């Protein structure tokens, strides 16, 4: 009979040690961590029944907001896990509020050992009961849950993809900085996550940052954090992405969208392996594995004076080029089948098939939007299908904007400007849809609109 696995999250190492000794004889496994940012990765990789969670993690901060935040995050992703809060006597009212938000129980400091053990055992039994109910529901649902998930793993076996994955396996074990390049929609973030999964930092956190979505005014605060009073809305100290990624992997997506003058600040942090929070003059050392991604030709941007050459050298110890979907042959059909099953389950059209002529049509298409476009194409076909067999006429492809300009000699910027205008017009001014069609984030679209004065 299993006794349960316990995760302790508290920035006080002596409390963790005390609890590990007290609970170690009563439960199957007891583990403590001092950094709450590691909670998501720990829950993904461990099979925990109960999380014992402190309410405050920063010195001088006693609001309990951090505990409430991490309680919300845990219950959002793992609703069946029991969360027991550790709170000071003065925080009892706050703990009662947390109980209404999903906490199983709370234990005041200093605690009574016998009462603590009884509380944790009851929390374990509650988790066991919820898990059993969940298993019954999962059996009833069959494969539905499996097929409805997003693609979170790399699919395909083409020589082009195999070559990339061989490179990933080689470099993942090192601490070398990696630059992942490739067109929009090719799966660069999936490659970054695979590098982290295979690295020596796999048990630490991976922090992803969309550089195209961060405004220039918030850049330093988002990446390096700030201290209380650094600016008008800085009501308390806050860690940035660099600090959060300490000991783990920092993934900077859309690195080519970073403005030139901010590149120097990023370079200094990468080069010195330390930074200062906004409003502070105290250097904070950081140990990170850096992985960047871009769909831009950074070498050309260096020549044009848009990207710092020294920064390119820093982030580009190893470069991995992700092949476009059109070069991956039968992987197109493998991916199409994956998305077909996913959306057939989502829209309750089980048993759908793609006939041979339709498969040939998919193979012949150029896929300028790559895997993202394929996913949208399959979803649209599933929604509109009236039969159990998808035929060539069930698949609609978006127009290739370049065909309009093939007889003109245009700069890359002029073509990009025209594509943006066309996408906005075709989607009746809906920026979210226009950004989706262009394969970029909405914030990146706004940045480009501002850049071109549209």
From TrEMBL:
For this protein, the record's Gene3D superfamilies field holds:
1.10.8.60, 3.40.50.2300, Homeodomain-like, P-loop containing nucleotide triphosphate hydrolases
Keyword annotations for this protein? ATP-binding, DNA-binding, Nucleotide-binding, Phosphoprotein, Transcription, Transcription regulation
Task: Report the residue ranges that make up the Sigma-54 factor interaction domain in this protein.
Answer: 154-383
4-aspartylphosphate modified-residue sites = 54
Task: List each copy of the Response regulatory domain by range.
Answer: 5-124
Database matches in Pfam families: AAA_lid_14 (PF25601), HTH_8 (PF02954), Response_reg (PF00072), Sigma54_activat (PF00158)
List this protein's GO terms for biological process.
phosphorelay signal transduction system; regulation of DNA-templated transcription
One GO MF term on file is:
sequence-specific DNA binding
Q: Which InterPro entries does the annotation name?
A: AAA+_ATPase, AAA_lid_NorR, CheY-like_superfamily, Homeodomain-like_sf, HTH_Fis, P-loop_NTPase, Sig_transdc_resp-reg_receiver, Sigma_54_int
Highest rank taxon of the organism: Bacteria
Q: What is this protein called?
A: ATPase AAA
